[in-house]
Amino acid sequence: MKYLYIIGICLFLGYLSYDIGINPDGYKKDKKIEKSKVVEPKQAKMLEKEKSKIVKPKQAKMLEKDRKALGALGQINNDWKYLSDGKSFNGWHIFKKDSVNDSWTIEDGAFVYVGATDGNSTGNDLISDREFTSFILSIDWKVSKGANSGIFYGVNENSDFNQPYFTAPEIQVIDNNNYDWSSGIDGETAIHTAGALYDLVGPSENNAKSFGEWNNYIIEINHNINRGSVSLNGINIVNFPLSGEEWDEMISDSKFKDWSEFGKHKTGRIGLQDHGGRVSYKNIKIKEL
């Protein structure tokens, strides 16, 4: 009986210690801490919402794929906008025409001038639908042996002139080493070589690659500071004003001195010149300033 009494007392004390929060190590439990571990229904819903925002590896790959696709379609990507999707001539037309004829084709994502089939050796300049004012243009180009072309800015199609070069300055694209300089009025001088602001400012160095190889131009036209520049294959080779006394002085000593609208249009289109020779352009993108 005595033992039963002792066992009863022990059971009672054990129950009492549990009820008042005494743990086996002899100190009180912190009931507040234990309570904090409980996730209320409202908290659970918030946690689930945050969890849903986590991008899993598979989702990340899909998002990256979508981003690249948008970039290829001409959507803004890090402030750059592509002017070509590499598959069509969307956003381009022949000068003063509504569409692009078969003198241009697309090969491996590049615009390629292959020559007119209608008997017109020139006059098939490719012009952007959009107009631009201040911008940075990045464009890759490649010429065939002895070919000549150019990149226009400030093209105006509302004038009475029948060629882009009557209003638009040109950055020269040419095979320096194999072009037949005796075939026309272009003399073999720096102001007519690759990278030149044609007939106005020659490049500081000749770093164009040979025909059949890709080159890259970074062309900046910034009317905000009245300066233009050309970088060829990563090297700045030409700098020039866009208007003012210095510009007027350059014009007065060039073939453009009697062309009343030449270089006068701050806002205009981009143009890729047809000069008869096979030429290719790709990775055409622009950043407006």
From TrEMBL:
A GO term, aspect molecular function: hydrolase activity
Residue ranges annotated for the 3-keto-alpha-glucoside-1,2-lyase/3-keto-2-hydroxy-glucal hydratase domain, each copy included: 79-287
Matching Pfam families: 3keto-disac_hyd
Listed name of the protein: 3-keto-alpha-glucoside-1,2-lyase/3-keto-2-hydroxy-glucal hydratase domain-containing protein
Organism encoding this protein: marine metagenome
